[in-house]
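Review form for a predicted model. The reviewer records the input and the model, then writes brief findings.
Reviewer: anonymous (R2)
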Amino acid sequence: MHSRSDDPVAAALEHAAALIADDVRTLAAANPVVLIDGCSGAGKTSLAQRLLGRWPVVGRVQLIALDSIYPGWDGLDAGVERAEEWILRPHGRGLLGTWRRWDWEQGTEAESHAVDPALGVIIEGSGSLTPTTARLADVRVWVEAPDHSRKSRALRRDGETYRPHWDRWAAQERRHVERDAPRALATRIVEIP
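Model under review:
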């Protein structure tokens, strides 16, 4: 086991989480919205978890992973549309939002989860940063990492479940990057080795 100082990925994630926490603190908002986008294996989930631990606003923050919302392996765009409709728009209007978890094993929607508009929200997932969602978020993060590092991390994390779907998911991510230019929409760009 490496100490954090020996692990350049962990060190980069810690540094990025501290910077994003400062971005959130600067907003002086009671219920900020943070979007964390990047291709699979870039470090979005790890970054979101670290930000959760450093959340600078009084009260808890609601962390929502788009992996819980995408409707299957061909559902990147549909998952982002659901996050916009079910979470971001209601939250922005001060209304209670409700999202439905996708049951990957059953291939259908499962239980509902409420989103309190009085609390901050972190949404992390591929495709989350689009021109439309950018208008509904206070802090917009693009996480970038080399392709070989991303694939290695993603397959180590999700193993054989993900391997047969890597190429079709990557094609959806490429379409998102080409169409939505998420890096240009970001208020903070994070580079992970």
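Findings: The first strand starts at residue 33 and ends at 38.
Further findings: The chain is about 45% helix and 20% strand.
Recommendation: see findings above.
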